[in-house]
Amino acid sequence: MIRLNVFIQVGDENRAALIEAAKKLVAASLNDEGCIAYDLFASATRADVFMICETWATPEALAKHENSAHFTTLVPEMERLGSLKLEKFNF
Fold it and tell me: What is the pTM of this model?
């Protein structure tokens, strides 16, 4: 399995738009084959920080997700709105 933690930092001016895009990404990704978990979390201590936590069954499922229309559309939008940092774990 593969776990990705995507940390997102966003300014006040883009916060609402980023949340909207992230929610769309989560909703669509939960339907992807091989998706075990996909969720958006807000920091309890910093209003400018979010995290998407996702778990994938196989590298192939993750690769297919990364080439999906929702990923290739929404992730660039989120990158435009905020700063993303990725952590990847195999287990």
Answer: 0.96
